[in-house]
Amino acid sequence: MFSKLKIKGKLFLSFGVVLLLTVIIFLFSVLSLRNANNRLNEFMNGVVTADDTMKDSAICTNTAARYLRDLVLE
């Protein structure tokens, strides 16, 4: 079938296939980026928030310990 086409037909078919593959790759890339963005948001809202809370807790504990030390020294 492909060998019976004229040059014009072969070019249209070839560029059509290339265009179709480009669209498929584009759609796959958009879906993959959306998935990666969702996973990053889940990570930032989960693990990083817990880590920030732990750091804040350590800071508050150190501040309280410093106040207690100053109280004992006076």
Task: State the gist of this model.
This protein is mostly helical and 74 residues long.
Structural write-up:
The protein has 74 residues and is mainly alpha-helical. The chain has 1 helix and no strands.
Write down how many β-strands occur, each being a DSSP E stretch of 2 or more residues: 0
What percent of residues adopt helix (DSSP H or I)? over 70%
Shape descriptor reads rod-shaped
How much strand content do the residues show?
A: under 5%
Any low-confidence stretches, pLDDT <50, length ≥5?
none
- Main pleated-sheet profile: none
Structural class: mainly alpha
Number of helices: 1
Question: For the residues shown, what is the average pLDDT?
Answer: 91
Following the backbone from N to C, one meets helices and strands in this order, namely H
- Gap from first CA to last CA: 98 Å
Radius of gyration: 31 Å
Question: Can you give keywords for this protein?
Answer:
single chain, 74 residues, mainly alpha, rod-shaped
How is the secondary structure organized here?
Layout: H1 7-73
